[in-house]
Design goal:
With about 240 residues, this protein is an alpha/beta fold. It contains 8 helices and 10 strands. Bound molecules: adenosine-5'-diphosphate and magnesium ion.
């Protein structure tokens, strides 16, 4: 499918900080196709999380346009953005952010709870937990799971929306292996690579670790000081 799923035109994000403004993103232009797996690489402070937050509708740009699946999300109201996040975005964070008193199954169910009837939601959630290798951990709460297993739950929680998203699901991962050991991290990256092939979603994985891009063998977009300095799809001569 040649359809562009994400288009950013001259996107900047400036944080007002007293006397000094911080330019976190400086005139970003980007096109990403539906179904691509992207690694967004750059040192700490480069603007990676800021860019992810704009793509995920958590924050809005200071200027510029952001189209996601042909929708101009940079113009949406807060309520419309909340609806966009609920239906089309799955987040995976470094520190998992699971609800501690809910089971793995319940943590995944709440991601899609308004999308269907209770029994159906349950069966869909089980299917996606099985897809990440946790079919035998449905009733464990996060403290009864290892770090790697908790991260698999968050991946299932993000990916489960695919069942209802009609190919329009954006999965945003911010340093997904930042809080697990290297071996566990490698297993998570293998899982990410596999689900990116098996499912229709578009994946953006943020990291400051160049080894991770090698392991994912994905299109690499390098960001530094709020600017895109290299894109393996469109290498700039620098
Ligand atoms: N809410 C905020 N207010 C002010 N400055 C911010 C805020 N969030 C991020 N920044 C600044 O924007 C720049 C980019 O930050 P960030 O996107 O978090 O980088 P990265 O995720 O690549 O480490 C940094 O200089 C950071 O200090
Ligand atoms: Mg960050």
């Amino acid at each position: 499918m040649a359809e562009q799923s994400l288009v950013l035109n001259n996107v900047s994000k400036i944080y007002p900080m007293g006397q000094n403004n911080v330019t976190a993103l400086d005139n970003i232009n980007l096109e990403i196709k539906s179904g691509e797996l992207i690694t967004l690489l750059g040192p700490s402070g480069a603007g990676k999380t800021t860019l992810l937050n704009l793509l995920g509708g958590i924050d809005s740009p200071t200027s510029g346009e952001i189209y996601i699946f042909n929708e101009l999300i940079s113009e949406l109201s807060p309520n419309q953005l909340a609806d966009y996040r609920k239906k089309k975005v799955g987040f995976v964070f470094q520190f998992f952010n699971l609800l501690p008193s809910l089971t793995a199954l319940e943590n995944v169910e709440i991601s899609i709870e308004s999308f269907g009837k209770k029994d159906e939601i349950r069966n869909v959630a089980i299917k996606y937990l099985e897809a990440v290798g946790l079919g035998d951990r449905l009733d464990h709460i996060p403290s009864e799971l290892s770090g790697g297993q908790q991260q698999r739950v968050t991946i299932a929680r993000a990916l489960v929306k695919e069942e209802y998203a009609e190919g329009k699901l954006l999965i945003l991962m911010d340093e997904p292996t930042g809080n697990v050991d290297e071996e566990t991290g490698d297993q998570i990256l293998k899982l990410v690579k596999k689900i990116a092939l098996d499912y229709n979603a578009t994946f953006i994985v943020v990291t400051h670790n160049p080894l991770i891009t090698q392991k994912l063998q994905s299109r690499e977009i390098h960001i530094r000081n709020g600017k895109i300095v290299n894109d393996s799809d469109k290498p700039l001569n620098i």
